[in-house]
Design goal:
This protein is mostly helical and about 325 residues long. Helix 4 runs parallel beside helix 8. The protein starts with a helix and ends in a 7-residue tail after the last helix.
């Protein structure tokens, strides 16, 4: 036997296996590469934190009046100026941001809950149940949303007033006077915005419910609620999240429109919609009352839309194949 043949054979070293990532991790990596979406998300987060954390440190409150001073242009004392009642515009803008952002996010969550539940049940049931539930959606679509919201606000007036009266009994909750009207806005706007969400979820469920893992869940004897909410809904969250981020600016626009019509929060509380309305009435004499709220509102809507577009691209399955 030759020396070459007698030499020991070394075992082959296997190449390290590439680390696999979940689809959500890959989507996060794609989102990080979208600079506009990242900057937009940081802007919205910073603005929300400023609206929450800054007001207690301001020298002037949102309701503090100084009639002798009246409307003044931006200065070192009042960075964004004051309105005709001498109220600091920066304080009112930050407090108004609390209400506008809260209505936008909470009403969108209400629409998300109703729309996902309704659309998932409709798409999973199919047949006559699906047809009936979708005809209900079509009928609600035919109603003018402004009239529907007005009727909702009238219907909820007594519960909202009772909630305000209960909160006024607690000194620590005086700042939340008028919260009943805000809760009414949550319910009224959420009752309108869920319709499109329900249609989107229904379409996604129709394409998912006949897949193999759903058939396997039925074979194992799982109940319908478990199949819908533990197997179907988690697998359609991508489009749902994207549409939710695009619903938030739409809800904020609707709240501003209602406030512009006088159906929003009551004075001395303010939202960005009421500030824009007051600024539009006095823009010829005091243009800063319209410029600053309008600019912040426009930038917020732009950032939310860019963030929604970034999430749509990041969660697109086809993008992972590029």
């Amino acid at each position: 036997m030759s020396a070459a043949s007698a030499s020991p054979v070394l075992p082959a070293v296997a190449a390290p296996a590439s680390r696999s990532h979940s689809p959500w991790h890959d989507a996060w990596l794609r989102l990080r590469r979208n600079r506009l979406a990242v900057v937009s998300g940081v802007f919205v987060l910073a603005l929300a934190l400023a609206c929450i954390a800054m007001p207690p440190f301001l020298e002037h409150g949102y309701a503090d009046q100084n009639l002798a001073r009246g409307a003044t242009a931006p200065s070192a004392e009042n960075w964004l100026g004051t309105d005709e009642l001498g109220r600091d515009l920066l304080a009112r803008l930050l407090y108004g941001g609390r209400i506008s952002l809260m209505v936008g996010f909470v009403a969108s969550l209400v629409a998300l809950f109703i729309g996902v539940t309704y659309g998932a049940i409709s798409g999973y049931a199919g047949g006559r149940v699906d047809a009936f539930l979708m005809r209900v959606v079509d009928i609600l679509y035919a109603l003018p949303f402004t009239i529907f919201v007005i009727l909702m606000m009238v219907f909820l007036k007594e519960p909202m007033d009772a909630l305000d009266a209960w909160l006024r009994e607690f000194a620590l909750l005086r700042e939340f006077q008028g919260i009943g009207k805000i809760v009414g806005l949550f319910a009224a706007i959420g009752a309108v915005e869920w319709l499109t969400m329900a249609r989107i979820v229904r379409g996604q469920v129709l394409s998912v419910k006949k897949m193999e893992y759903i058939e396997a869940a039925r074979t194992l004897g799982y109940g319908h609620p478990r199949i819908i909410f533990r197997h179907i809904v988690p697998n359609i969250l991508g489009p749902v999240i994207v549409f939710t981020t695009l619903t938030i600016p739409a809800v904020m626009m609707l709240e501003s429109f209602l406030s512009f019509l006088g159906l929003g929060v009551d004075a001395p509380l303010s939202s960005w919609g009421t500030l824009i309305k007051d600024g539009a009435d006095k823009m010829e004499n005091y243009p800063w009352l319209l410029v600053f709220p309008g600019t912040v509102f426009a930038l917020t809507l732009l950032a939310l839309n860019l963030l929604g577009d970034g999430l749509r691209d990041a969660l697109d399955v086809r993008a992972a194949k590029d």
